Amino acid sequence: xxxxxxxxxxxxxxxxxxxxxxxxxxxxxxxxxxxxxxxxxxxxxxxxxxxxxxxxxxxxxxxxxxxxxxxxxxxxxxxxxxxxxxxxxxxxxxxxxxxxxxxxxxxxxxxxxxxxxxxxxxxxxxxxxxxxxxxxxxxxxxxxxxxxxxxxxxxxxxxxxxxxxxxxxxxxxxxxxxxxxxxxxxxxxxxxxxxxxxxxxxxxxxxxxxxxxxxxxxxxxxxxxxxxxxxxxxxxxxxxxxxxxxxxxxxxxxxxxxxxxxxxxxxxxxxxxxxxxxxxxxxxxxxxxxxxxxxxxxxxxxxxxxxxxxxxxxxxxxxxxxxxxxxxxxxxxxxxxxxxxxxxxxxxxxxxxxxxxxxxxxxxxxxxxxxxxxxxxxxxxxxxxxxxxxxxxxxxxxxxxxxxxxxxxxxxxxxxxxxxxxxxxxxxxxxxxxxxxxxxxxxxxxxxxxx
Length: 451
Description:
Layout: E1 7-11, H1 15-26, E2 31-35, H2 38-47, E3 52-56, H3 64-73, E4 82-86, H4 91-99, E5 104-107, H5 112-133, H6 144-161, E6 165-172, H7 175-182, H8 184-200, E7 207-210, E8 215-221, H9 225-240, E9 253-260, H10 267-283, E10 289-291, E11 315-319, H11 323-335, E12 339-343, H12 346-355, E13 360-364, H13 374-383, E14 392-396, H14 408-411, E15 417-420, H15 425-447
Parallel strand pairs: 1-2, 1-3, 3-4, 4-5, 9-10, 11-12, 11-13, 13-14, 14-15
Antiparallel strand pairs: 6-8, 6-9, 7-8
């Protein structure tokens, strides 16, 4: 039997067809999970990670098309490959399925070998796409976006099943000096050796990602602090043992660890706390592992090349559908010690604001959303007693296409600052300083009864 680690969810209300599909797949090494309704399928997806979905079109309660639409509406599930199986061979029905972006369409009765071949073909294409979009090309590890997505999935699972985990960040010590003194080739060799150490000495269930040139992320599933310390210290010891011809020095990293759920359940919070601990490791002489504690605060040294905000740590919502800009802004703010949440449309922004109160919002005015884009977020906030005083900075390349004067956003809608894209990060941080200083002064004035 062919070895396989893929899990396939089968939605089929016909028991004979369900058994045939499941047997065809399990006999080739796949793991098959079967349900008979779309509702049960959605429930199963909330509990179990799957690699592919096979769904009948005609089912009770919810047909396959409706189920597919619900899958597409959920950012967690929409990437999962999807195959329809149906007794209806009409071209119009197949076209409808293709319009919903399915990866394959198989008509009943079917040859089990045809089904298996189609599944292998779809999963093969998916694997190629994942390797190209989720992995760092130099190391083969998850890139930072893919790592974040995977950890967020684990955080939801932990919340549901009351489990635990630890996030560690590993920062190579003196990497710039290694490159300058011994050459970039040596620096690359150190990086690749650390990558190999990570791959060879971590569990297959753990997550490893690259986070910048000389930093790596390591999420240890179901680990407590002592277990995580032991794991990361073991990696450090192996790097200390690395010997390169002609290089007389010890190689090391500084690491910080934060624990879920004790130190938070939000990815950005956990990451910031792990980074804070890693900085403390550097301050303590490098080549060590530090666990985050409540009394730690993120400070900055003159060696950083990232602009540093002057407001202290803020809770910031960044809402922008342009991924490269949103990620750059968020990265800069996190490097400056802030807690950042990213969303991509106005619906997500409003959902976030229903349960959270940020200190500042950085908002693209022209982003998509069923409620009306960024301007709708501004209007709802200013109409809300709970949210009306939160500062808003608008960033946009289309301020001249709003249908009204951009300054009206300030005079009529209470926006605190406007920044045209493209912009310099220093400009953004400078506006943040001004806006937050004004907000603090206003609150202090209200506290002593000044109009």
